[in-house]
Amino acid sequence: MHLAYGAKPFAQDQSVESDDEDDGPINRGYYEGWLRYTLSEKLIEVSIKTRVVMDMIVHEKKRWEADGEVYPVDPERLDQEISEKHPIASASSGVRITVRECCNKIIHASEIAPIYEVADEEHNGDEEAGLKRQWSYWTGGLDLTGTHQGAEWHYQIEVAEFCSALVELLSDLEDQVDWNAIDKD
Q1: How many separate domains does the chain show?
Q2: Which of 49, 71, 85, 161 is the most buried (most CB within 10 A)?
Q3: Separation of alpha carbons 10 and 114, rounded Å
Q4: pLDDT digits over 12-55, tens only?
Q5: For residue 154, what are the domain limits?
Q6: Phi, psi of 34 (to 5 degrees)
Q7: Phi/psi at 124 (nearest 5 deg)?
Q8: Distance between alpha carbon 60 and the CA centroid of its chain, in Å?
Q9: Four-residue CA torsion sign, 151, 156, 159, 163
Q10: Binning pLDDT at 50, 70 and 90, where does residue 136 land?
C-alpha cells in the first residue's frame, strides 16, 4: 500500500524518466523493472495466502452446514460487502470485482503493467538543473491481462484499495472465525 502512495513523490524526486545512467542509480529501466517485479512478487504472495484462508473458511462453512449448523461467518457475503466499499478492480467492461476474484486475476495474470500518468507539477530536480521536464509517475494502478478457457480478460486494479480491502477482510475474519476450532482434516 505504501508503495502506491509513495510513487508520485518518489518519481518527483528521482530521475525515473531518464534512460541515462548518469542521471543517478534509479533510471527508467531500473525503476520500471523493479516496480513490476516487486508488485508481481508481493501481490501474488498475498493473493495466494488470501485464497488459502478464504478456501479454509468456505470448507469449514460447508462442514458446519452438512452437520445442520449455521457457520458464524459467510465469507462470500463478507467479501461482497467489503468489495462494494473499496473500488479494488474493474473489468474492461467496467464491472467491479470482489477480493477473491481480484486474487484469482493476480495469480493467473500473464501480463502485469503498472499504469503511469504525466504529472502537472514541476519535478524537484528542475530548479537546480535549470530546465522544465515532463515527468510521469506510477498511479497505483495495474493493468492485468490473461486468458481463461481461450477468452482473453483484462482488469485494472488499484493496489492501495486492494490492500485496504484485504486488511478489512482479514481483520473481520480474524474477529469472526474461531481458528482453533477449524477442522484439521
Answers
A1: 1
A2: 161
A3: 15
A4: 666 666 566 655 667 677 788 888 899 999 999 999 999 999 99
A5: 2-181
A6: -65, -45
A7: -65, -20
A8: 27
A9: negative
A10: confident
